[in-house]
Amino acid sequence: MTPLPECLPETKQTESLLVHKDFAVRFDGNTYTVPPWAVGKTVIAKADAATVALYFKDKRIAAHSRSWQRKTRIETPSHREQVKKLRKRLWQDRQVAAFLSLGPVAVDYLEGLIEAGLPTKKQVKRLLALEDKYGTEAVIYAITKSMACKAWGADYVENIVHQEMTPKNEHPPVRLRNENLNRIRLKHTSLQEYDSHVLKRMKK
């Protein structure tokens, strides 16, 4: 008999899988979650009769009990909690808050960007730049039209405003030496608040 090889051959079922925007892979008729930072990346699934382990660059990032049912989602609670923390951090971002102040349409569009797995902060930055150039009404119109077609991303919004609108501001805002000051954006305040304030003073 000859000696066994130093590295035994892999006997587990192995597949290369894409991590979808719901932070999960599709394997053998079911979905298995991974940490949300892996969305959009390709991982390796190694499965036996009892376990499904998921690896990224030879490092195990998740392990689940294997399900022999179909159309079942096997989720680690910590993965869901990580998603919640990421979303909370995103909504507290200064530029995102400025974008959301455009109204309910912006809120719905932001959710669509997140679900589409796009780099949200970069998309928001581009959308705010379009607002600076074309005005709030033009951007809201373009976002609404983009959502109706389920087209997510600043590219679609930009194409719409380029085709249908003319720039409102030909000159970019003044750039200050302090970059922190350049990043400050004020939320859009409803004019109804001013009307209410005036009416109160008139009654007095």
Architecture blueprint of SSEs:
Blueprint: E1 13-18, E2 24-27, E3 30-33, E4 42-47, E5 51-56, E6 59-65, E7 73-74, H1 77-91, H2 94-100, H3 104-115, H4 120-134, H5 136-148, H6 154-164, H7 179-182, H8 191-203
Parallel strand pairs: 3-7
Antiparallel strand pairs: 1-4, 2-3, 4-5, 5-6
Helix pairs in contact: 2-4, 3-5, 4-5, 4-6, 5-6
Could you describe the 3D structure shown?
The chain has two domains: about 15-75, no CATH class; about 95-190, no CATH class. The strands form two sheets. A four-stranded antiparallel β-sheet has the order 1-4-5-6, with no helix packed on it. A three-stranded mixed β-sheet has the order 2-3-7, with no helix packed on it. The chain has helices spanning about 75-90, 95-100, 105-115, 120-135, 135-150, 155-165, 180, 190-204, and strands spanning about 15-20, 25, 30-35, 40-45, 50-55, 60-65, 75. The termini are far apart. The chain is elongated. It has about 200 residues and is α+β, with helices and mostly antiparallel strands.
Rounded radius of gyration (Å): 24 Å
H/E series, N to C?
Answer: EEEEEEEHHHHHHHH
- Measured as a percent range, the helix fraction is 40-55%
First-residue to last-residue Cα separation:
104 Å
Our estimate of the beta-strand percent is 15-25%
Largest sheet: 4 strands, antiparallel
Overall pLDDT score:
83
Which stretches are poorly predicted, pLDDT < 50 over at least 5 residues? Answer: none
Class based on secondary structure composition and strand pairing:
alpha+beta
Taken from the alpha-carbon principal axes, the silhouette is elongated
Strand order of the largest sheet: 1-4-5-6
Q: Could you give the count of β-strands? A: 7
The number of helical segments is 8
Number of domains: 2
